[in-house]
Please model this.
Amino acid sequence: MAKKDSALIKRKEPRDSEQPDLFFCDVVDVSIKDSRHAMAVPFLSLSKRPRFEPIEYENANTGDRILVAGAKPFGIATIWDFDIMIWLFGQIMNEINRSRTPSRHLAFHAYDCLRGIQRTTSGTDYDRLEAALRRLQSTTIHTNIDNASPFSDSVGWLDEVHIQRDKTGRAQHIELTLSKWIYAKVTDPQRILTLHKNYFLLTSGVAKQLYRIARKMAGHRSFKISMPELAKRAGAEDYKHFCEQVRAVAALNNDREQSFPEYRVLIERRGKGRGLREIVTFEPREYKRALATKAEPRPGYAIPYRGAGSFDISDDAYDEARLFCRSHDLDFHSLYEGWRKSQFKKTLGFYSRARGESNKDPRKSVPGLLSHSR
Model:
């Protein structure tokens, strides 16, 4: 019997041959999010000058290790570059809060991204956006934090970046693919934290990293850390310059326009001479008032610590309200933002009444669910 001509037999398509589903990021003014695991350790350069020297970090107590390297000619991704990622994380969580599953293949207009991260839209800003994407793509991370390498011994922020330009050569439409490593973390609500809306307005790289450390480590409580350990967690290149920057931030505690978002930065000097040590404290701005009035909220209640117009909530309350919105086909994100801006401070009695009224208008139940958890 003659053998079949193998040329006529159709082979199977490669697994990756299908065109991936694109998630289009079109919400400019989205609540900005950050990944918990990347906030209090040095994954990013704090300098606007290209950094090619690797960032190395090791925690002797936990065994956590990080090595970050940047390929030439781009260098390591900077903390300003990461504004793009934070904006994208907000887009992803906004989609998840709408009970949808976003793809790790994202698309957006360059103009929308620049507006979202509160930059201007000059030609220089478009060039900087493109350069930031190249650095994010070329940065390689070796780490064992949070079992970070189930996919590969080395990971990164972006797998692919495609830029479509207009007639003038300016970046117009951007498509990119998040790495599986970071995508797995930012699609888990328990691994995401909301940042203050003014975070993008911070101009100092040190100030931006200080805020991320405070947001992760302090939350709604006071947090103390030695200056050397703080510099280590921030990935500072020049310790003396870093200390000067921290002191400059602390000096602006009472300046309403220039003050650090959400937190007071306090520096305490202990010892004398060569034994002099500096201890940095991150203290929520509402913390002292709560202690003075003995108004420390009971567990499960909203804790005011983000300044005017914003409240933090327990994880249980957040999850209960989010699941409630899913079951009633409501937009959790918009209701949550509305709750924060209106400064709801409701009692358990309101919470019970709100839940009882859910059959009339389920939207009325969300503020109560956010204000208290079982």
Notes: Residues 291-371 form one domain. Confidence is low (pLDDT under 50) at residues 148-152, 292-311, 343-359.
